[in-house]
Sequence to fold (201 residues):
Amino acid sequence: MTRLLKKLQLGVLASGRGSNLGAIARAIEDGRLAAEVRVLVCDKPEAGALDIARAAGIESRVIERKNFASRDEFESAILRALREREVEWVALAGFMRVLHKPVLSEFSGHVLNIHPSLLPAFPGLEAQRQALEHGAKISGCTVHFVDDGVDTGPIIAQRAAEVKDNDTVESLSARILEQEHDLYWRVLQWIAEGKVKTGQK
Fold:
């Protein structure tokens, strides 16, 4: 077995059902991923990710944009939550907001996202619908570092998924999601093993 260099101290940001958070938590519980999720930060109080965090014994914080006068104040509150839990890496898992300063400055080179397309194809929202509308035959998912653009950061790993002739957005999304659940934790493990270099911080 590869000797682990460091156990990752993760903060996860999510807005939705939290299935990628659940896949990460299972990989940790099964001993496949040398990490600890220190906190889930969620911007929607009704998000399913909160239920997954509760079931996994992960602390969660709900930080809603509407409670802050500006975007910077909102992101400063997220940053405080991450600092308080001594997070070293941030994993976006269905977080439906574009991060800016101060989070990206504080965690430069240490913020990851998973996106449901083979970037640079189909960035932004509704990537699966974009793939179908463009007649793509192959789609998939991408784990990448986050910069201040929309799905523009350096790519770490990708996983392909076939686009079938009878696919709907829902069926393609489900097939891509299967790949996401297997890829994200593996990339985090590569980081724990020192196999991924950020070149920053």
